[in-house]
Amino acid sequence: xxxxxxxxxxxxxxxxxxxxxxxxxxxxxxxxxxxxxxxxxxxxxxxxxxxxxxxxxxxxxxxxxxxxxxxxxxxxxxxxxxxxxxxxxxxxxxxxxxxxxxxxxxxxxxxxxxxxxxxxxxxxxxxxxxxxxxxxxxxxxxxxxxxxxxxxxxxxxxxxxxxxxxxxxxxxxxxxxxxxxxxxxxxxxxxxxxxxxxxxxxxxxxxxxxxxxxxxxxxxxxxxxxxxxxxxxxxxxxxxxxxxxxxxxxxxxxxxxxxxxxxxxxxxxxxxxxxxxxxxxxxxxxxxxxxxxxxxxxxxxxxxxxxxxxxxxxxxxxxxxxxxxxxxxxxxxxxxxxxxxxxxxxxxxxxxxxxxxxxxxxxxxxxxxxxxxxxxxxxxxxxxxxxxxxxxxxxxxxxxxxxxxxxxxxxxxxxxxxxxxxxxxxx
Amino acid sequence: xxxxxxxxxxxxxxxxxxxxxxxxxxxxxxxxxxxxxxxxxxxxxxxxxxxxxxxxxxxxxxxxxxxxxxxxxxxxxxxxxxxxxxxxxxxxxxxxxxxxxxxxxxxxxxxxxxxxxxxxxxxxxxxxxxxxxxxxxxxxxxxxxxxxxxxxxxx
Lengths: 427, 155
What we know:
The complex is a heterodimer of chains A (427) and B (155).
Chain A: E1 13-19, H1 23-34, E2 40-43, E3 59-61, E4 70-71, H2 72-85, E5 89-91, E6 95-99, E7 104-109, E8 113-124, E9 128-130, H3 133-136, E10 146-148, H4 149-159, E11 166-170, H5 174-185, E12 189-194, H6 204-211, E13 218-219, E14 222-228, E15 235-240, E16 253-256, E17 259-262, E18 266-268, H7 271-276, E19 300-302, H8 313-331, E20 341-345, E21 349-353, E22 356-357, E23 363-369, E24 377-381, E25 385-389, E26 398-402, E27 414-421
Parallel strand pairs in A: 1-2, 1-8, 2-5, 8-19, 10-17, 11-12, 11-17, 12-13, 20-27
Antiparallel strand pairs in A: 3-4, 6-7, 7-8, 9-18, 14-15, 15-16, 20-22, 21-23, 23-26, 24-25, 24-27
Chain B: E1 18-24, E2 33-39, E3 42-47, H1 52-63, E4 66-67, E5 70-76, E6 82-87, E7 91-92, H2 96-104, E8 107-109, E9 117-119, E10 129-131
Parallel strand pairs in B: 5-8
Antiparallel strand pairs in B: 1-2, 2-3, 4-7, 5-6, 6-10, 9-10
């Protein structure tokens, strides 16, 4: 079986059209099929489906979706095999330029040219993009050799190039940690990972397995304050930061490197939703969504990293399946719930997805804490549900299940989500 | 500020036989600091864990630390130049670099299937190295639309 059948004929209209064929888009397509959509289109701008999974060659995927630890490419292929089995139209090398009101979609590709189609429902599944040097305004020269960690990952894992010989990494997010190990294993000298915050941003497992195992130093409360080099990067200046995260320049030092990787966060790649005029959540940087994963634009759904940056592809797929199911429900005229309950972040919670729910549905509520609690923590959904967990950290998204029985007899309109030390909770 | 985690064993003599080694548990975000008391290669006690995972991890980490390993190898005749591979089982931690180096000069040809063994029993570990994605040969492939040949490889 080829990895995908090349799409020969594009229909003029679809029940559900999905933008992006990564872990979100593929799961949305399967959800839409399961809920009865007939004509489903999955569009991706890359040459093949899979998204960023294809360059994430490390393991750590699939523990929830497949009950087995596998790598990114294996996760992508398992989903893709299901997508093909379910006869979903896949159009690659295609760029969606515009989604208009009423589901009019304009796209462009070498095989179909510039064309339009109508979709009863649209699912936005474009994922996220990396923050770049411009986002944090590192002063200095503009030589080659300064790039995002994900770009370097693509160069090394798909294209077969090493980005340099001696590298520093700014930011201890998971991609940065994983690239530290990857470069070291490929024979690049990795002089260290520099993290502005006093704690690592990535998962503890990655700190141990990517840095400690290979004796790569992690410099906490330290950042890059200068970039030097005429054509190629020659050195960076790094400095410790004070409690207000301001660099202490008198204590700075220089590090000779020809490569600087930036792992300084992801931003939802949600321009299509922005152009449509959807309401956005200023904390996530993604569109506001209902419990059915519909944006504030009727018929336009969104799921995965385009809504909020997740730490596991498995969570992305789970959320996107819901979006695909409801997109199909809308397209096929099924009844959808009235949503009159708002979920809002409370104590020590940065954001909550979804933003609204109905009283009669079952939902996975996802949120991220602002500060770590290194001990028993009480998670609360308003007065209706609470669950105790061992600990919470900002690097790990937290999820709670909300069921209709929890809302029986409750007549409020707003549920606040809190994550507080368990001993502070008085019953 | 060169922060290091206390993963490296730090023997502290309690009496002349028992040594305490410190590991950071990776089982969950709690990241328990585990203290493993051992006499030579025998674990006497694990402390500092909050669940069974920690106890198990501490023993395994002290006696036989292993890690999942992924890398890429050259592939000829495919639409991309590298094909991802992994070890079928976690390998001993101190052999990570050696295994990657053993695979470095390897070249295989498309097509390949997911799960295909490219090196059996790598470095005598008893563990196979397997391909983690399908890659059709160019021309045979039908899933890429560029119609271009793969970039020419050096040598």
